[in-house]
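Hey, why these numbers?
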Amino acid sequence: MRIALGIVKLFPEGGLQRDCIRLARILTARGHDVTIFTSENKWPFDRLPCPITLLPVRAYTNHRFDLNFAKRFTAATAEGFDRVVGFNKLTGLDFYYCGDPSILDRGRGPIERALPRHRVQSMLEQASFGPLQRTQILALTESSAESYRRNWRTQEQRITVLQPSIDPARQRPDLRASDYRAAVRTKLGLPANHKVWLWVGAQAHVKGLDRALAALLSAPDTTLLVAGIAPDSKDAVQAGKALSRRRNDVRFLGFREDIPELMAAADMLIHPSRLDVTGQVILEAIVNGLPAVVTGLCGFAEHVEKSGAGIVLPEPFAQANLETALARMRDSAVAEAMSLAGIKYGRETAPVSGLDQAADVIDGSATLEPDAPAAASPAPRYVPISIIVTTYNRPDALDAVLRGLARQSDKDFEVIIADDGSTPETCALLQTWQGRLSRPVRHIWHEDRGFRAAEIRNRAILASSGAYCIFLDGDCIPRGDFVLEHRELAEPGWFVVGNRVLMSKRLTDQVLRKDLEPELWTFAEACRARFNGDINRIAPLLQAKLGPVRKIRPQYWWGARSCNLAVWRSDLERVDGFDGSYVGWGLEDSDLLIRLLRAGINRKDGRFSTGVLHLWHPLADPSLLSANQTLLDAIQQSDRIRAVSGLKALGNAEPWADVRPVKNRIAMG
């Protein structure tokens, strides 16, 4: 299969960049066609495992640079790839390989959150982690996974927490043998009587080099090796000025590939980072027997604690705590015990399998039986939106609705037909639609025992897999951006009420004869239909970004209908769904909205965005409306939130029947 890997910048010093190259090598070895996309490539050309495609971008700020690259990467991978994998927060991803926590955990105040930097970062984060996205998360640490569950309600089934992973070539505890260690120290010209600290990184300030240098001033007979910072760099020059009286005790080594050898020569890794996605060098240090002093916000600090191979500094950072930890590490017995603990941890946990695990998830091997070949199938997708279409004995209208759904610009949804007891013609129609939508159509049916729309919708909810349910009637045709507009309006704590355009009987007959496809109308064609009296209004067909105006009536339930309504699945479960006590036409949707509002879920207006075209039909039998009105009056006078006969009332009863020959259909209720 063709796999695209996206990373904003590719350079050999970064742990994320090395993981990108290693993953590309693993996937290529499995026979996949891999391409890496990046804006800047500084990796040695003779060591690349796959082609590199440059997508150069320009910007004055880092966040705008990331956004511009995300746009180019999305466009470049829109077609022709079976899997799209990101190593930075990008858009249009099937998989995101990540370790950093949510930016919402950074404690930014209201002013910072209003700045473009936060808005862009939040938008890119939501594009992967939001509950209505399909991106599968390959998390490097449990703490980062929990951060996204908490802040974005990322579903558990979309997250895989990977085992730790380092390059096997960099796990060399054998190099700490005294003879080899002495030889490396001699080669580096290190004083025999000096303690040796090792600092590794490419971003001096972020990785806390200044903190290490400050600690060096009070550490006698100590040499600091700095790998990743060139001797003639700006960071090295500034460090020299700050350490004029101890500058001979600092060695700037530049980029080095012999990190295991440097670890063998050193007595301790010092890594007082201000921010670290994982801190790959931390894991490499402890499994190589090099004790580590690290800050607690580093992603892999947890391995230091688990192994007992070093000291994790508490947050917030204090220089005194760092110096106290370093003084403790000067005790040879303490350092030796930590070294042995780290080597033992590396042997017992074998932290080399994480990228193989990531490759298994990406190419689908993780879901196959042992020895079964990986198939070049579409990326496994979590479908976050369930469209529940209610119908009863009107297959011609349902056909028009499904035609509208097949034309959606946003195809990440499942379709569930909530069938209130139709005859076999509806099932026959649905058989013809299998394979014509992005996912199979599911047919939820129960026996015809009168108008029981509330109950069949509940059965459809139970059968759905999405986090967000959009209810649509089987005679309401959606236009091409219906799902996309609903997705953009979705917001935790709110349900969205759409509106409709009523069509005349004459126009409806033309649509059902397939002479017209009104979901494709231009504005001029809609105006012509309005002028001819074939539709009752044009406003629902207009598009407008109303922003906060959509929230001006948060507690208003009048006029809302379930023919065009979107509610979070968790909110439906909170109020126990529709109330099946409503039998016959009318008011079951009003009951639901009253209970949602009472539960603290607010109303958001979907007009000028999600309007649908309602086919004409005779007026429903209002004979039971008075009984339903009595039920509605009762709910208004009470403080009840949950339905009298809702989702829970269905118990463990089978909630659905897949589309199949009518003679094998399972009757519900």
